[in-house]
Amino acid sequence: MSRIGKQPIPIPAGVKIAVTGSNVKVEGPKGKLELTAHPNMKIESDGKSLKVTRPDDVRQNRALHGLTRALINNMVVGVTTGYSKKLKIEGVGFQAAAKGKGVELTVGYANRIVHNPPEGITVAVPDPTTIIVTGADKQKVGQFAAEIRASRKPEPYKGKGVRYETEVVRRKEGKSFAAGK
Known about the structure:
This protein has helices at 59-80, 138-150; strands at residues 9-10, 16-20, 23-28, 31-36, 42-45, 49-53, 83-90, 95-99, 102-106, 113-115, 121-127, 130-135, 161-164. It is an alpha+beta fold. A hairpin with a 6-residue loop joins strand 9 (102-106) and strand 10. It is elongated and about 70 Å long. The protein starts with 8 loop residues before the first strand and ends in a 17-residue tail after the last strand.
């Protein structure tokens, strides 16, 4: 039995969950999320918690069991507390600015790069070297943060670029002058 899949998902106060067949709709203070689970997974609610069960021990069903439970749990956490990713910009002249709902990056290219967030994601720029991406959907928050980081990945020689706040960039030693033969 899956260690993650067999754990019940507690439903906090203020969260409404509607289960119809393999569709799960979660509504809370931070927004609404919806998931269509695999038809083999059975999702049951008793009002205080959700439980995901699988029909048998076929390899695919074992894999889907823990995945489905984790996705539903991420939805519940997302509509109650939400998710956020913090990015830092390093480099001389590298900066970010809020532009409408999106973010405009100046990261060493001839043109500025503008990233507009998808529905349900908000971007804050508290200072020119910090970007905070927040939202209820964990996957969308992570994907949008990854797209911003991909604008200029941190390079290993000077450390310039866009990185996650907790990311550690391994630094390399530059070219060393070769002594005479």
